[in-house]
Amino acid sequence: NCNPLKDENCKPLNVGLSTSIIDYFEEKSPNYSIFIDRGSFTFHKNDGLEIIMDKRYDNPSIRSNFYILYGKVEAIIKTSSGQGIISSFFLQSDDGDEIDIEWIGGERDKVQTNFFSKGNVTTYSRGQTHKVIGHSESFHKYTIDWKKEELNWYIDDKLVRSVKNNTDERYPCSAMSLMVGIWAGGDPGNEVGTIQWAGGETDFDKAPFSMFVKRIVVSDYSSGSFYKYSSNYLNNHYNENSDNKGIEIVGGNVNDRFEIASKEFSIL
Q1: C-alpha span between 239 and 173 (Å, rounded)
Q2: Looking at residue 232, what is its pLDDT?
Q3: Quick one: CA torsion of 139, 258, 125, 135, rounded to 10 degrees?
Q4: 109 exposed, middle or buried (CB, 10 Å; 0-12, 13-18, 19+)?
Q5: 124-138: burial string, b at 16+ Cβ within 10 Å, e else
Q6: Which residue among 27, 41, 63, 172 sits deepest, i.e. has the most Cβ atoms within 10 Å of its Cβ?
Q7: Which pLDDT value is given to residue 241?
Q8: What angle do CA 33, 37, 40 make, to 5 degrees?
Q9: Rounded to whole angstroms, how far apart are CA atoms 215 and 49?
Q10: Where does residue 259 fall: left (phi above 0), alpha (psi -120 to 50 degrees), or beta otherwise?
Q11: Average pLDDT by stretches of 10, the chain with 268 residues
Q12: pLDDT at 122
């Protein structure tokens, strides 16, 4: 869990997926592990994994046991209601690249998309809001298609946003794991700006709060068995054209599975 941009001794070895997989979460999956255990997790036959915030200070989440370097991820999710409660589905690298989908519990018909490069949060102009009816009342399909040249978000198979890799905001291009979780942006202890963004303070007397994920499909566009950061990564991390400078691919290549992964995804 270290960051190679902040610690020269941080040399994570990221296990590559290098294939396509599907999980229904009717039971524990070998492809995912509990990342933060403050909260609880219940598996259901029809509704998949329920991720539960039982009380204040809970922020339960799961994380994939693999990384992808470009790929397509899709989840069928029912989010949590509740003022200030945030349900999240996102890709994240060790060095601060991130691709997000987030839902604010008090906004029943909206979803937010965002992306970050190398942990740069000096501006929040990358975020956009999209319409989705009743995301906490029913399941919807959400897709992130992270290509080397372009990043696309879909809701119920409809394209809602595209970002090119030459964006002025810089483009995420490090190997990323997949995370799903729930947290309280409206906790009274948070910064005022965070509470406002989350829609107001959370009433924890109304806990528990739950989100459900009943299917996740992942296709890796690259074939690497492992991804690691080069010894001079601190000097070479900046790249605006998504050429993955400073990332070493072990046992494979970047983006060489694009065609076969696209076929696998359509079958799954």
Answers
A1: 9
A2: 67
A3: 0
A4: exposed
A5: eebeeeeebeebbee
A6: 172
A7: 45
A8: 100
A9: 9
A10: alpha
A11: 82 95 98 98 98 98 98 99 98 95 96 91 81 97 98 98 92 96 98 96 98 99 93 59 74 97 96
A12: 67
Residue 17 near residue 161, CB atoms below 8 Å: no
- Tokens describing residue 50: 């329920």
Give me the phi and psi of 235, to 5 degrees please.
Answer: -90, -15
Q: Ramachandran region of residue 84, left (φ > 0), alpha (ψ -120 to 50) or beta?
A: left
| Tokens standing for residue 146 | 């992270």
CB-CB contact of 122 with 130 (8 Å): no
φ/ψ region of 261 (left if φ > 0, alpha if ψ in -120 to 50, else beta) reads alpha
**Residues near 55 by beta carbon (within 8 Å), at least 6 away in sequence:** 204, 207, 208
Q: Give the catalytic positions in this structure.
A: 98, 102
Structural domains in the chain, sorted by start:
13-256 (2.60.120.200)
Angle at 198 between CA 43 and CA 33, to 5 degrees: 30
CA gap 143, 153 in Å, rounded? 6
Note the pLDDT of residue 161.
98
- Cβ atoms 197, 248 nearer than 8 A: no
The set of residues, in sequence order, having a beta carbon less than 8 Å from that of 135 and lying 6+ positions away, is: 77, 78, 79, 103, 108, 109, 111
Q: Are 20 and 261 in contact (CB under 8 A)?
A: yes
